[in-house]
Amino acid sequence: MKVLITETEIQAAIKQLAAQVDADYRGRPLTVVGVLTGSVILLADLIRGINLPLRVGLLQASSYRGESTTSGRLEINPDYTPDIADRDVLLLDDILDTGKTLEQLIRRVESLQPRRVRTAVLLWKRERTTVDITPDYFGFEIPNEFVVGYGLDYDDQYRNLPYIAALEPADLPESDTT
Ligand code: 5GP
Ligand code: MG
């Protein structure tokens, strides 16, 4: 595994993101909706830097099932999202890859009649993004490598790493030793 983004770099970027959000919303109430499970670490760190009247929601979205390639249809469960009708929403995900996930999530959130939806991701694989989405806020652009850590998993492992690392081929096959 090779470290791509250190803990210090991540924390500095999140401080900046929070400051941008503060400046853009200028004291207006905001609901930050994090996409489970990958965004939980980012959610916890980001909201503590935001100085606005704030609510938190969660969306469950599953497509990756222990695989490192996109597969299947996205299942979205909004049960843990508070009422966002007429509210400003910041939809937060760990990574923007092809963009197909975020596209469906935005559509789903918009169906709940918010005032406005903006998007934030920690990582953006810009060269891979095929849908017409530009995140309103992002931390880092990264190359097309499969990354883990800081909420991102491979087969539900590595989410607890405080940094972002790229998995190398040797990490992938039958690496589960538990
Ligand atoms: P997209 O729909 O943009 O192609 O994929 C977004 C989702 O795929 C993310 O929410 C994340 O769950 C997963 N994903 C994409 N790239 C990576 C990666 O490099 N590492 C991990 N762990 N997940 C990824
Ligand atoms: Mg995800």
Provide a descriptive summary of the structure in words:
With 178 residues, this protein is of the alpha/beta class. It has one domain (8-142): Rossmann fold (3-Layer(aba) Sandwich), CATH 3.40.50. Helices cover 21% and strands 30% of the residues. The protein is built from 3 helices and 9 strands, in the order E-H-E-H-E-E-E-H-E-E-E-E. The chain has helices spanning 7-25, 40-47, 100-110, and strands at 2-5, 30-36, 54-62, 75-80, 88-96, 116-124, 137-141, 147-148, 164-166. The strands form 2 sheets. It has a 6-stranded mixed beta sheet with strand order 4-3-2-5-6-7, with helices on both faces. Strands 1-9-8 form a 3-stranded antiparallel beta sheet. Helix 1 crosses helix 2. The model has no long low-confidence stretch (mean pLDDT 92). It binds guanosine-5'-monophosphate and magnesium ion. Magnesium ion binds at residues 35, 38, 93-94.
